[in-house]
From TrEMBL:
Belongs to the phosphofructokinase type A (PFKA) family. ATP-dependent PFK group I subfamily. Prokaryotic clade 'B1' sub-subfamily. Mg(2+) binds at D106. It holds the Pfam family PFK. Allosterically activated by ADP and other diphosphonucleosides, and allosterically inhibited by phosphoenolpyruvate. This is ATP-dependent 6-phosphofructokinase. It is an enzyme of class 2 (transferase). PANTHER family: ATP-DEPENDENT 6-PHOSPHOFRUCTOKINASE (PTHR13697:SF4), PHOSPHOFRUCTOKINASE (PTHR13697). One of its GO terms (molecular function) is 6-phosphofructokinase activity. It comes from Mucilaginibacter conchicola. Pathway: Carbohydrate degradation; glycolysis; D-glyceraldehyde 3-phosphate and glycerone phosphate from D-glucose: step 3/4.
């Protein structure tokens, strides 16, 4: 078993609220256990540029409430190459680092696993940090809860104005491959329809549904469209406009505001638990694993398995319930 003496922590891919509580937990758990910690700036790019600094418990003071990530994040093309990985490895060795905690999504884990197979003397643990909630091995990922609450707050406001003007709003929310935010926000806001990348909803069905709403005296309608729906909110609105005249139809793209904001209680606790567990896993000699939360318990999953099983499983029962509750 490899004995760890110094670890590095980085955040990579899209930022997600909850990353800061996780960084804080990693730093303090490591120092509590007598390890040294380096913070790597800008994800894998920081490994290649040797952009890292020693952290102590005060380096992570007062960050629990901050969105984004104090370490910054980046999408780094050079890390996909053998040369980039070799430079990263040499920099880690030069800094005396033998363990790495990476916080990010499936791309980050793909890079981490490739790196760890090439350089097994650096132990690697992944923490699921993505608002998309689409990783195998953890019921929830960091940032999903906060992002969903942000979306709900925005849609509640849109509902007020939609209702005042008898309007139909198409609201696009984040999720290129995953309808997780759209589905949860749709249930929470009583959306009349939810369109997801995982399910093909025929336009005729949507129109029928909206007409039924009007027949049932609804004064406004909200259609949530996940970013990954192949038609997009604007084209959908255009199609519907041709056939529905009783509503004034508007489109709102929520965009990047969904990523920001102070992490929710759930994400602060999840970040703390996963960061704590990641360091304890490294100390126990684990590597090439992801820490996740299943049935409220910490669970380790092989990164290989997490990546091959990677897919958001749409809960059909929730879709069905949402359709019924929005009549
Ligand atoms: P999100 O879910 O928020 O998009 P992510 O971790 O999936 O997060 P990506 O941009 O896909 O975000 O990946 C983050 C980084 O991981 C990439 O910029 C790249 O540096 C690294 N990476 C991704 N795929 C590979 C790969 N096949 N080999 C090496 N590194 C990779």
């Amino acid at each position: 078993m490899q004995k760890i003496s110094k670890i590095a922590v980085l955040t990579s891919g899209g930022d997600a609220p909850g990353m800061n509580p996780c960084i804080r937990a990693v730093v303090r758990t490591a120092i509590y256990n007598g390890l040294h910690v380096a913070g790597v700036r800008q994800g894998y790019q920081g490994l290649i540029d040797n952009n890292m600094y020693d952290m102590d418990p005060r380096s992570v003071s007062n960050i629990l409430n901050l969105g984004g990530t104090i370490l910054k994040t980046a999408r780094c093309l050079p890390f996909r190459t053998d040369e980039g990985m070799e430079t990263a490895y040499k920099n880690l060795k030069a800094n005396g680092i033998d363990g790495l905690v990476v916080i990010g999504g499936d791309g980050t884990f793909t890079g981490a696993l490739r790196f760890s197979k090439k350089y097994p003397d650096i132990s690697v643990i992944g923490v699921p940090g993505t608002i998309d909630n689409d990783l195998y091995g953890s019921t929830y990922t960091l940032g999903f809860d906060t992002a969903t609450n942000t979306v709900i707050e925005a849609i509640d406001k849109i509902r007020d104005t939609a209702d005042a003007h008898d309007r139909l709003f198409f609201i696009e929310v984040m999720g290129r491959d995953s309808g997780a935010i759209a589905l949860r926000a749709g249930i929470s806001c009583g959306a009349e329809a939810i369109l997801l990348p995982e399910r093909d909803t025929a336009i005729e069905h949507l129109i029928e549904n909206l007409k039924a709403g009007q027949y049932n005296k609804k004064s406004s309608s909200i259609v949530i469209v996940a970013e990954g729906d192949k038609r997009g909110a604007y084209d959908l609105a255009e199609e519907v406009r041709k056939q529905i005249k009783f509503y004034d139809i508007k489109v709102t793209i929520l965009g990047h505001l969904q990523r920001g904001g102070s992490p929710s209680a759930f994400d602060r606790i999840l970040g703390s638990r996963l960061g704590f567990a990641a360091v304890n896993a490294l100390i126990k000699g684990e590597t090439q694993k992801m820490v996740g939360l299943e049935a409220n318990h910490i669970k380790l999953t092989d990164l290989e398995e997490a990546l091959t099983q990677h897919q958001f499983k749409l809960e059909d029962d929730l879709m069905e319930m949402s359709d019924i509750l929005s009549i």
